[in-house]
Structures are given as structure tokens and as C-alpha cells.
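Input (structure):
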């Protein structure tokens, strides 16, 4: 069986180093991601690489969701937001969409107030069900409710 955990620290996809890191893993029907910023655009290429096979596996489930937990900072440059938008746009129509996407940004995470609207906008453009939370428990409750909901 394939290992269902990936880490951007183990990737190098561009000639420039990525700033920030993400670890992604599949837990049942949730793609669980832990990210530590600040981030640059190169991290999006690394995320694409580590999430590729995980998304192929999880999107075969009847329903799936994703949770991103941010540590330290969520700051990023405008070109990072642009790269994230491009990545999510490229995925549209290729995979079954998640029923929910939760971002967890604790109140002490640097850049939360400034960056949260930008991340929300990117996920709205991708037509994904998105919510922001300040703790993991609330995010997991919301995601599980979306997964349990009848079609």
C-alpha cells in the first residue's frame, strides 16, 4: 500500500527554494494538511507534487473533504495567491470536488486578518465550499457535518 503522507520539505520542484512547508495526509475521507508559513509561489508547485497522488486516491471516495491547519504565519505574496488560484482552477473538472474545505488559522497566526479574505476569495473562485475556523475541533465538526449530509 502507498504511504498516504507527503511533505514539501522532501521536494524541490523549481530552481528557487520554496518558503513555507506543508505536510499532507489522508485520514479516512479527509485530506488533512498542516502548513507553516510564510509562503512564496514556489510552495504551490511543491504542494501540487505532494498532493497529486493523494488527491487521486481520496477523490475516488463517495465524499471527501479537506482541512488545512496553519501554523506560525499565513503571509504570502500576491504571486503566491495567483499560483494557488491557477492550481485550483487547473483541478476543476479533473477530480470530484471536496464537499468542504476548512482553513484553521488560530488567532495568534501571523497575517490571519489580512490574508483570510484573500484565501476565501481564491476558494470561492474555485467554487469550493469554504469556511475559516480558529481551532481544529470546530473545523472537524463542520467538515464531518458536510460529509454526513445527505445529497
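Output (sequence):
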Amino acid at each position: 500500500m502507498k504511504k498516504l503522507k507527503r511533505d514539501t520539505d522532501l521536494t524541490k520542484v523549481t530552481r528557487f527554494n520554496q518558503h513555507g512547508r506543508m505536510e499532507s495526509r489522508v485520514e479516512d475521507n479527509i485530506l488533512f494538511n498542516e502548513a507553516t508559513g510564510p509562503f512564496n509561489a514556489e510552495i504551490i508547485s511543491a504542494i501540487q507534487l505532494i498532493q497529486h497522488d493523494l488527491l487521486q486516491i481520496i477523490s475516488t471516495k463517495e465524499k471527501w473533504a479537506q482541512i488545512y491547519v496553519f501554523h506560525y504565519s499565513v503571509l504570502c505574496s500576491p504571486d503566491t495567491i495567483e499560483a494557488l488560484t491557477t492550481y485550483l482552477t487547473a483541478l476543476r473538472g479533473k477530480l470530484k470536488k471536496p464537499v468542504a474545505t476548512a482553513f484553521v488559522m488560530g488567532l495568534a497566526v501571523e497575517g490571519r486578518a489580512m490574508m483570510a479574505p484573500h484565501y476565501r476569495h481564491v476558494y470561492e473562485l474555485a467554487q469550493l465550499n469554504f469556511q475559516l475556523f480558529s481551532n481544529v475541533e470546530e473545523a472537524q465538526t463542520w467538515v464531518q457535518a458536510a460529509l454526513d449530509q445527505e445529497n
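Notes: The helical segments are 41-58, 78-91, 112-125, 136-148. The mean pLDDT is 89.
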